[in-house]
């Protein structure tokens, strides 16, 4: 399955991440592909926000592997509590409601321009996973990634985001979400999200049904 | 074992500092907080130059190979025995887990065997403490601008071990942006010194790259857009068949990065009223940054402090320096000390 999204600014990119962050969970592997300046880190930052990480996601190019231990569970618990009490909901809605998404299905059939709002948060999502953000921009050989134990991170209780994953293509799990970003410089960025599993098809529907509301007009 | 008494033999108060968080295996013996008896760095930079970056597999393997040799050399150079040490200080994060583990496990083993206390040091704190090696009479409060390949932080220091992070990068670190631009311009690794070298022959006003200041009053940084602006300029020129001068690009980009670092630091001075600023981290070795900040702070009756270049990059002396002050505060680590790759500065 493939989905497409066009971003006209880093802010649009961040918002796609924000939406994704709300459906990602432990065990997921997300590959972010695109050149320097395409917006991989911007997307990861949005994902971090959507997940409710307490600290901002920054580029892991230098550190190669950045772990966000425990940041998520505490914050999400708090947020969910607040959401249940109805506090944050209005704020979250006002932020998202201005986002207009033109989502197309893989058949290329454009959906109506979506008016976005938060209708519900998935309350069943596990709170016990950590987020690991990797960046292999500087690696030149697959063995380098293998020796630092990259595959050890592909676990049920870890959500892995990978920038520049090409070098470790052979050890990537088949069940993953691939996000390819095309477009240089001032051009809009064309996002292609693809996943082979049926499970992701359902998740994508969750994403639209759960977070986006398609407006009647 | 009780660590209540300050252990000061005739040889003085000796701290062995060990650093393995990234690409250097380093150890140093520090006497009484300021006197460096030895300072050993097994620099892996020649290995990494081939790859244009720090390659972790190589890093952790090299740390293992060099660890014992580097520590023994530091001890021999200082002419002291392990039993003379007051404590062993080691970086336990942030950094690459494999690399950190070599240092932490090694330091624990030596400390346990020698019967001396262990001190865990935050790598970012250690960079700041490089300043105390050469400016022991620094008074609090002061500000620190920590700029390296992995970090860009503005920190308020109220006292030893008492920090408040006022601002940090929201995307790329300053050193990372310099590295990526250097690589794109074909200048090699590490990017900072290469950009500085190329910039010397260029015109800093040739390109007007954006200076990302974020929302008014914010002390956070953002270098990702500035990096993209250089890439855009290169792409646009390439499509038109124009060849842009590398020295001009390097000089203009360096100027943009320095401008942002300086403006944010001055804003922190303005907001806090604190006028003494410490520079730390690899990018602290940048001449333009040092000169500009020195001048600007002078005009505000403030002062800039920075370590000599060889103490700006990763080294054991800065770890020993931070360890010395933790020793005075009796802040020891348990034997269960572990590597914390994502350690924050709190």
Quick recap:
The complex is a heterodimer of chains A (217) and B (346). Chain A has 217 residues and is of the alpha/beta class. Chain A has helices spanning 10-21, 40-51, 71-84, 88-96, 142-147, 198-211, and strands at residues 2-7, 29-33, 65-68, 100-101, 114-116, 130-135, 158-163, 177-182, 189-194, 212-213.
Structural notes for this entry:
Chain B: It is found in: Cytoplasm. Chain B: Its main location: cytoplasm. Chain B: It is an enzyme of class 2 (transferase). Chain B: This is tRNA N6-adenosine threonylcarbamoyltransferase. The complex is a heterodimer of chains A (217) and B (346). Chain A has 217 residues and is an alpha/beta fold. Chain A contains 6 helices and 10 strands. In chain A, strands 1-9-8-2-7-6-3 form a 7-stranded mixed beta sheet, with helices on one face. A 3-stranded antiparallel beta sheet of chain A has the order 4-5-10. Chain B is globular, with a radius of gyration of 21 Å. A 5-stranded mixed beta sheet of chain B has the order 3-2-1-4-5, sandwiched between helices. A 5-stranded mixed beta sheet of chain B has the order 8-7-6-9-10, with helices on both faces. Chain B is built from 10 helices and 10 strands. The model of chain B has no long low-confidence stretch (mean pLDDT 90). The interface between A and B is large, with 34 and 40 residues.
């Amino acid at each position: 399955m493939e989905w497409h999204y066009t971003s006209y600014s880093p802010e649009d990119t961040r918002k796609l991440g924000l939406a994704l962050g709300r459906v990602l969970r432990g065990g997921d592997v997300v590959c972010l592909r695109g050149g320097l300046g395409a917006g991989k880190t911007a997307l990861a930052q949005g994902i971090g926000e959507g997940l409710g990480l307490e600290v901002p996601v920054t580029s892991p190019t230098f550190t190669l592997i950045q772990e966000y231990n425990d940041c998520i569970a505490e914050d999400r618990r708090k947020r969910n509590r607040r959401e249940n009490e109805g506090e944050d909901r209005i704020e979250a809605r006002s932020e998202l409601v201005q986002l207009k998404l033109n989502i197309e299905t893989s058949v290329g059939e454009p959906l109506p321009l979506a008016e976005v709002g938060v209708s519900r948060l998935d309350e069943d999502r596990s709170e016990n996973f950590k987020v690991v953000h990797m960046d292999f921009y500087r690696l030149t050989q697959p063995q380098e990634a293998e020796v630092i134990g990259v595959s050890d991170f592909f676990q049920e209780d870890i959500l892995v985001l990978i920038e520049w994953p090409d070098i470790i293509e052979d050890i990537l799990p088949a069940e993953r979400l691939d996000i390819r970003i095309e477009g240089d410089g001032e051009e809009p960025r064309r996002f292609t999200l693809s996943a082979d599993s049926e499970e992701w098809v359902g998740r994508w529907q969750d994403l639209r049904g759960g977070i986006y509301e398609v407006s009647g007009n | 074992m009780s660590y209540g008494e300050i252990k000061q033999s005739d040889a003085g108060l000796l701290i062995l500092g060990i650093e393995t968080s990234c690409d250097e295996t380093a150890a140093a013996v520090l006497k009484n907080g300021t006197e460096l008896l030895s300072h050993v760095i097994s620099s892996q930079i020649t290995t990494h130059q081939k790859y244009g970056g720090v390659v972790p597999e190589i890093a952790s393997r090299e740390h293992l190979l060099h660890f014992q040799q580097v520590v023994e050399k530091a001890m021999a150079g200082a002419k002291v025995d392990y039993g003379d040490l007051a404590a062993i200080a080691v970086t336990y994060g942030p950094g690459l887990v494999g690399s950190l583990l070599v240092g932490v496990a090694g330091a624990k083993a030596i400390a346990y065997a020698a019967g001396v206390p262990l001190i865990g040091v935050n790598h970012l704190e250690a960079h700041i403490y490089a300043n105390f090696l050469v400016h022991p009479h620094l008074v609090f409060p002061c500000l620190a601008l920590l700029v390296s390949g992995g970090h860009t932080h503005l920190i308020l220091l109220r006292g030893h071990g008492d920090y408040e992070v006022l601002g940090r990068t929201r995307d790329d670190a300053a050193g990372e942006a310099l590295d990526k631009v250097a690589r794109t311009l074909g200048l090699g690794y590490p990017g900072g010194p290469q950009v500085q070298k190329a910039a010397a022959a260029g015109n800093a006003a040739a390109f007007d790259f954006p200076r990302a200041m974020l929302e008014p009053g914010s002390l956070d940084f953002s270098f990702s857009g500035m990096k993209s602006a250089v890439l855009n300029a290169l792409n646009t020129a390439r499509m038109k068949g124009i060849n842009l001068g590398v020295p001009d690009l390097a000089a203009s980009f360096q100027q943009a990065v320095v401008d942002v670092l300086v403006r944010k630091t001055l804003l922190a001075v303005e907001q806090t009223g604190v006028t003494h600023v410490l520079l730390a981290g690899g990018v602290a070795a940048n001449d333009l940054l040092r000169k500009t900040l020195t001048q600007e702070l002078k005009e505000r009756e403030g002062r800039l402090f920075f370590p000599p270049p060889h103490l700006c990059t990763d080294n054991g002396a800065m770890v020993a320096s931070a360890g010395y002050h933790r020793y005075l505060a009796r802040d020891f680590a348990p034997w269960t000390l572990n590597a914390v790759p994502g350690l924050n500065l709190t």
